[in-house]
Amino acid sequence: MPSIISKIPRTIKAVAFVSFLINTSTLMIFSIFGLYLHDKIGIDLGRIGFLDGAVDSFSFFIKIGSGVVSDFLMNRKLIFLIGAFFLFIAKPLEAIATSYWPLFQSKILERFGNGLQATPRDAIVGDWAPKGMKATCFGLRQALAAFGSVVGAIIAYVLMKQTGDDFQFIFWMAGIPSFLAIVVIALFVMDKKGEHTNTLPKEGKKYRKITIKDIKNLGPRYWVLMCVACTYMISKVTESIVIIYVTKSLHLPSHLAPICMICYSLASSFIALPAGILSDKLKSRENVFILGIIVFIASDMLFIFGNNIALMMVALVFLGCYTGISQSIFPAKIIDIIPADLKGTGIGIFNFACAISLLAGGWIFGAISEAYSMRMAFVASSFFAIIALCVLFFSKRFNKKFEEQKQA
Questions:
Q1: b vs e for 73-83, b when ≥16 Cβ sit within 10 Å of the residue's Cβ?
Q2: Which residue, 228, 314, 365, 387, has fewest beta-carbon neighbours within 10 Å?
Q3: What are the pLDDT digits (tens) for 155-214?
Q4: Is the distance from CB of 326 to CB of 276 less than 8 angstroms?
C-alpha cells in the first residue's frame, strides 16, 4: 500500500487533504444538523427530507456549471478555490441562523460552494492520475474525505458533550478547517498543463469553447452510465433521516448522534482506497460497484429489521462501505470513457443527473417517513436499489457489446 501511495502525484495528495479539511468542517455541522432542526427548531421530517434533497440537488446543479466553466477557462484551480471560499463564509451564517428559512438559505450557500469546488476537484484528480491508477487516486481522495467526516463527527461529539449541546458554538468552530482548506488549495494545488493543447484555438485564445458537438462526443457508454447514476442516487435515504432514525429508534441522547456518522464515515474511509485499487487491477469497475449495491441493500435490510445498537451500527458500516465504493468507482469510470478535455463537463453532467435523483429521493423518503414511518423509507430504498442493480447489469452487458464492436 505505501508503495502505491508514493506513486500518486503531490497535487492529488493535496486535493485529498483539502477534501479531508472540507469534510471535517462539513461533518462538524452535518452530524448534528438533523437533530438541531428536529429537536431544537421543531421541523417535521418531511421538511427535513425536502431540505436535504433540495440543497444537495442544488449543489449537484452547480457542479455541472463549474465543470463546464473549468473546461472553458482551462483553469480548474481557480474554480476549486472560489468554491472553497463560499464553503467557508457559509459557516458563520449557519451559526447565526435560528429558524428554518435562514438555515435553508445558509445551507444553499454552503452547497453552492460545495458544488462549485467538487467538479474541478475531481477533474484535477483525473488530470493528474497516472495511467492504470485512476480509481486508486479517486480512492485516496475519497478515503481522506471520509476520514475527515470521522474527525468532524468526533469533534462534534466532544464539543456537544463539553458545551451541553451548544449547536451554535460548534457551527462557529467548523469555520477553522474550512479556512485551512483555502490555504492548502492556494499553496499546494496545481493545474496540469497540456491537458487541452489538442483543442486550443489556433488564434491563441486562452479558453476552450464547449459546443453541443462536444456533449455528443461523450458517447453512448457515458449516457448509459448516467442511467445507472440516476437509479442508484434515488435509492439513498438522506443521512439526516438515517441519523434521526437510529437515535430515535434506539432512544439515544442527542450528543451520541455523531457516533452514527463516525461508524458510517470510518467504513467509507477504510473501503474507498482498497476498492479503487481493486477496480484498477481487475479492470472491471462494474463488478466492484455491483458488490457495493449488494452491500447497500444489506444495509437497508438491517435498518428495517435491526432492533438493537449492534445491528444498527453494522447497518451504518455497510452504508458507509457502499458510499466509499461508489464514490471511488464512478468518477474513475467517467474519466475512463470521456475525452481528456471534457473531464469537467462529463463529471458535471454526472452530478446534474445525480441532482435530479437526489431531489426526488429526498422528497420521496421524507414524505414516506412523515406519512408512514422512517422504517418504510428503507423498504422503499431497497426497492429502488434493486432497480439500480438491474440497470447496472444492463450497463455491463452494453459496455461489453460496445467493446466487441469497437474491436471488430
A1: bbbbbebbbbb
A2: 387
A3: 988 898 888 878 889 989 999 999 999 999 999 999 887 554 444 444 455 565 666 666
A4: no
